[in-house]
Amino acid sequence: MGPVDFRTPLPGNVGVAPQNFYSRVHETQATTKTEPFKVDVLTRELPEDRYRNVLLQFFNLRADEQEFPGSSKPESSPASGEVLEFIAQDCPVLMKKDFQDLFPGRDLQHDNLTVLTMCQRTKNDMSIWNEDVESEREELTEYFVSAAQDICEVLRKAGYWADFIDPSSGKPYLGPHTNATFFETDERYRHFGFTIEDLGCCKVIFHHLWNTHAFVCCLFTNAPLESPEVGNVLQKQQRLNKNN
Length: 244
Hints:
It holds the Pfam family MMADHC. The chain is built from 5 helices and 6 strands. It is α+β, with helices and mostly antiparallel strands. The chain has one domain. Strand 4 and strand 5 form a beta hairpin. About 25% of the residues are buried.
């Protein structure tokens, strides 16, 4: 047996760290630029969260970069004081089939499909229900239906097809009858930068800035995203938002 090392008196040549060991370690870490790796399953970004955030940034970037003749660039993300977000997005080919059942009379696979989402900021939390929430939803529904009818009329006069989803029924407002629905808590809204959460008793849609203080509706058209007509619609809604 070799000489005993009094620094490691425990079985297996194990020693006890000196009292100032941890303080020296912390001092060493403080002088380095490497951040410790944190493992927190509650706060770390999951792959699906990363995918959704990347898509959201992509859609917002596309809207920011879009230019229209005789007009300025529309803002894609609402400022803190704004109450309306109106965004046009080009629906990818692989997602068109997800909306075919809403418009059985149209061949979405072989045509343009632009989706315009209108999100209105609400005073009440839409994840709960009471008389104030119900009253506000009715007012916002009435506003959207009126605005969507005007938008569809403009696009149709320009020679395009356009229709919107009635928030009350979840069905196309102008098109033929269909059993398919598209309510604001539908999982397909994830394609357009929103988050759908299942609270157990119900599903709720989350806006990336306003959380559950949001009322979301949408409109479909075959007018190209880069068309002047879609650009004018975005600009008009932006002016209305600033005047509110």
